[in-house]
Amino acid sequence: MALDGVPLDMYPGSPPMLAVQHLVLPAAGRAEFVVFGPSQTTPLMTSCYFTGNGGDPDPEATLAWLRPTGAMQRETQAVLTPHLRVNPLRRNLMSVALPPPAQRRTTVFSENAAGTQFFIDGKQFAPGEPPRFIIKSGTVEEWTVLNKTNEIHDFHIHQVHFIVEAINGVPVPPPYFWYDSFILPYQTKNSDGTTTPGSLKLLLDFRDPVIKGKFVYHCHLLDHEDKGMMATIAVE
């Protein structure tokens, strides 16, 4: 029903609900959903996720067991069904289709060979550093985010949301949803020994006139963030 705090149908043409059995949530990602009780005891699981040859292991694990009773299942179905009719959302800037980007930028996530230092655009975060980008309030920007490492990162930005246009150069078809966190794929090795960075192409929404000042974007894998993978921007 919602991702990262925003209803699915906030973006024009997107549905109010999606029926799924699997959902990829990055660090800091949030999802709101309705679960219909299964007819028998069923595990709620996190699947094994490959984070790249340089990434941390993320094995399959059972998070919880759903043990419904017949009475509970009937009552839940009866209570939820009338409320699944989603009321029209209040119109705001996020419910208006994005205009063409006013600016296009590229930002690069990288790390040293030992995995002890992490960088954005070749720099470790330093408190008090000048903003990496200065952005005009009221505009939309297209960012290409590159990952030149052998592990995934979690692109996260404060204050604003974005639409994902492409992953590793492959366009993402509609419907579109608003995010503030998304998995940045690891780089791949080519047959000639070269590497191709993992990539995201994002449309970031800076149209809200209230959102001004300095804030950060970073990898939300906290060990990476704490070791330097963070940068400041300013919206003016």
Numbering strands along the chain, what is their spatial order in the largest sheet? 7-6-9-16-11-12
What is the H-and-E element order? EEEEEHEEEEEEEEEEEEHE
Specify the biggest β-sheet: 6 strands, mixed
What CATH architecture of the largest domain do you see?
A: Sandwich
Indicate the overall shape. Answer: globular
Fraction of residues in β-strands: 35-45%
Summing up helix and strand content along with how strands pair, one would put the structural category as mainly beta
Low-pLDDT runs: none
Count up the domains: 2
Q: DSSP helix count?
A: 2
Helix content range: under 10%
Radius of gyration (Å): 20 Å
What is the strand tally? 18
Alpha-carbon distance between the termini?
Answer: 33 Å
